[in-house]
Structure prediction request, 135 residues.
Amino acid sequence: MKAVRNILLLILCIFIFPFITAADNSTPEGFEKYFNNISTKLDLTDQQKTEVMPIFLSDFNETMSVFKKYGFDPSKGEKPGIFKLEKMKDELQQSEKETDKKLSVILSSQQMDKLNRIRAEEKKQMEEELKAHKK
Prediction:
């Protein structure tokens, strides 16, 4: 059971961290803030911003749709339980794969590497927050 819990924690960290670290990330304004932040970190050109914005927005909307489907509302500051995570896992993984496939056509390999490092940093931060919350 502990192994399953750890796997689900990892899923939480990788796929939905950007949307639940701050409740306003699940709003259009929150998305805009997130997109501007990630654009700066990836040093996107104006052309790349134009091309990747719809991809990130589609991923955002798909994630919110999955959340809604499973009765999870991050705009209320909710965090999903293990059982909801298990149910959402496959859909969120598939969405991220599709997003990465689309992004890899536009972003350089260095930018994709950086995006993956950002995701890893987000995962680490989420793990630390969850550990601190348990104490």
